[in-house]
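Here is an idea for our session: we take a single protein and study its fold together. Once you have written the record down, we can walk along the chain together.
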Amino acid sequence: MRFTIPFLIFSLLFGCSEKKEKTKVNTGDKILFVVSNQHTYGNTSINTANHFGEIVLAYDVLIKEGYEVDFVSPKGGAIPIGYLQTSDSIKKKYLYDFDLMGRLKNTQKPEQINPDNYRAVYYSGGGAAMFGVPENEAIQKIVTQIYSSNGIVSAVCHGTAGIVNLKNNDGSYMYENKEVNGFPDIFENKKGQYYQTFPFSIEEIIKERGGKFSYSEKGWDNYYKVDGRLITGQDPSSAATVAKEILKKLKTIEK
């Protein structure tokens, strides 16, 4: 079952939370999730949202290793969540997780974020990720500072839209000459009304700017790429793996 759930309705239906598992805490080790405030595809009335699975499957991996996760969005506050599959045990668990849902209801604004507190960035997807995030210069500045301080930048599916404008301090694109992927054009309905609202094609813009974009033609088969401190996944099936690769990379780099 897939749907978008406004937070007002959520708070009325799911006011209680499951007992949280205890996890070890790596003091000072934080990871920043970038999400979108967008509720519709462009200026249409077609609903869109942040992909709940891409958020929680990665979140689950990271917090179990003791990493604290913060959420930032262009405007701060509540974000729309969708693509819900309550038949999945992890996704269902987090729908009832008061702490996480509170974080998604109260995401931070860019000006509230201190880049020095984070070791990695994770851009989650969903159609909403195409709007508001890619062009947000404040978020770009935060992420660039984290990356230039030996941090990790990662994205999954349409979340890769968030990295297309990221540049290194020398002006080159962060993904130039690097292996990178995201949701490819082959799986988009280019004639669909939703697609007509997209500001760009993730695949095309990355190729134009020197990125080595690749993808699995099968899809939904955990396809991902790791190139240095840039980690990207093609679709929801790679969300948990991208998080695991973040953990592996964090063990190899100094704070």
